[in-house]
Specification:
This is Site-specific recombinase XerD. This protein has 416 residues and is mostly helical. It is built from 14 helices and three strands. A three-stranded antiparallel beta sheet has the order 1-2-3. It starts with 44 loop residues before the first helix and ends in a 5-residue tail after the last helix.
């Protein structure tokens, strides 16, 4: 259906650069609340969305996820329907849900659509688009959950009269067969073999190899989320003596929901940390309160073939890699391992397809699954990964830290 207004917004643009004509800004949306006292000073839809997002400003990952979904819906409403977000109906929301599975026209909505999509551009880049391809069923469900939170809050704040998504009944469905989001040991070995085969002819190639090996060690042995790998520092490693007098290393991780947990730094993990740091020309072990990020960018002189300047770190402040950059590194490794599998013939195509779908979070699931397979107590697995409980309703069970470290060290190995 063509837009019903003469739009100024001809192409999707990020929220911070969006200019909406008065006829579409929502100040007179058909779903605007008319009775009662509004608790928001927002006069239009964009201001209302910004007020909602401001609640998550101190949680960058949540903020980025929520902004993405609100931004996509607002742009779709303006560009595709030619109506304000505050005029959307239940039927519109159902149409949007179908749109997420196939954003068309692709040139309008998908970055690098002509090249198969997938590439991200900075928000200030003219090539920026709100999508990188069709959303999976799981991603669509997550998007609708977030939008339901948005609409519910706007109703509660007295900005909207009703929630157009509230009419959707979320029934519990029987589990359908789906790909398990973890790497079974054989497939995990393929990934490690690919990393071991990475080229190391130039300084930059060697720096990239060592960084990849350390990143995968950290994500797998530590069970870290990708945001945790980017948001914590080497100074958070510390050593303490256990009840038997054994010195054990730990990593304090500041994670999801501002929670803090202690991750056992096993002998393998500390060996790989020392290997990575020494390659970078640093001391083998970190100092207390050291601000060096867990994973470092490759310096501009890393392409040099001399050993002296092969891996100089960018800037004196040890600038960390972004979550997106870490995610790209992991995805590139999975894609490379998948390519090697495909070279072996059609019999390996299904395993290659699975690897191409993998992400950094699969390493976290793999770590948990492999620990459980190796008979690590599930309570220890829970504490290592920072889960609140064994199930959403179970009571928290205290586990002795020394035993947790010992079992993790003995039974959870990467075996490069």
């Amino acid at each position: 259906m063509p837009p019903s207004h003469n739009l100024v917004v001809l192409h999707p643009a990020p929220l911070e650069r969006l200019v909406i004509p008065a006829a579409l800004d929502g100040h007179a949306g058909t779903n605007r609340a008319t009775a009662g006292h509004a608790q928001l000073a927002a006069a239009n839809d964009l201001e209302a969305i910004r007020a909602w997002l401001a609640r998550f400003a101190d949680k960058q990952t949540t903020f980025d996820s929520y902004r993405k979904e609100a931004e996509r819906l607002l742009l779709w409403s303006l560009v595709q329907l030619g109506k304000p977000l505050s005029s959307l109906t239940h039927e519109d929301c159902l149409r949007y849900q179908r749109f997420l599975a196939d954003p068309q026209p692709a040139a309008t909505w998908i970055a690098n659509a002509g090249e198969g999509g997938g590439r991200k551009h900075p928000r200030g880049d003219a090539r920026w688009r709100p999508f990188h391809g069709p959303l999976s069923p799981a991603s669509i469900r997550q998007a609708m959950v977030i939008l339901n939170v948005l609409f519910s809050w706007l109703v509660q704040a007295g900005y909207l009269a009703g929630n157009p998504l509230a009419l959707s009944r979320q029934r519990t469905r029987k589990a359908t067969p789906r790909i398990t989001r973890y790497l079974e040991p054989g497939l995990w070995q393929e990934v490690k073999d690919f990393i071991a085969s990475m080229p190391q002819e130039t300084g930059r190639e060697r720096a990239h190899y060592h960084r990849v090996r350390w990143l995968f060690t950290l994500l797998y042995l530590g069970g870290l989320r990708i945001a945790e790998a980017g948001g914590n520092t080497m100074g958070q490693f510390f050593v303490r003596r256990d009840a038997d007098g054994t010195m054990r290393w730990w990593l304090t991780v500041h994670g999801k929901g501002d929670r803090e947990r202690l991750v056992p730094a096993t002998r393998e993990l500390m060996t790989e940390l020392s290997r990575y740091r020494q390659f970078l020309g640093m001391t083998a072990l970190p100092s207390p309160n050291e601000t060096t990020p867990l994973v470092l960018p490759i310096g501009s002189t890393a392409g040099s073939t001399t050993e002296a300047d092969r891996t100089k770190i960018e800037g004196p402040s040890h600038r960390p890699l972004t979550r997106a950059a870490l995610h790209t590194i992991v995805k590139d490794v999975f894609a490379g391992a998948a390519g090697r599998l495909r070279e072996r013939g059609e019999a390996f195509a299904a395993r290659a397809d699975l690897l191409e779908q993998a992400s950094a979070h699969w390493l976290r699931h793999s770590a948990g699954s492999h620990m459980a397979d190796n008979q690590v107590d599930l309570r220890l697995v829970r504490d290592n990964l920072g889960h609140a409980s064994l199930t959403t309703t179970s009571l928290y069970l205290h586990v002795d830290d020394d035993r947790r470290h010992h079992e993790t060290d003995e039974k959870h190995r990467i075996n490069w």
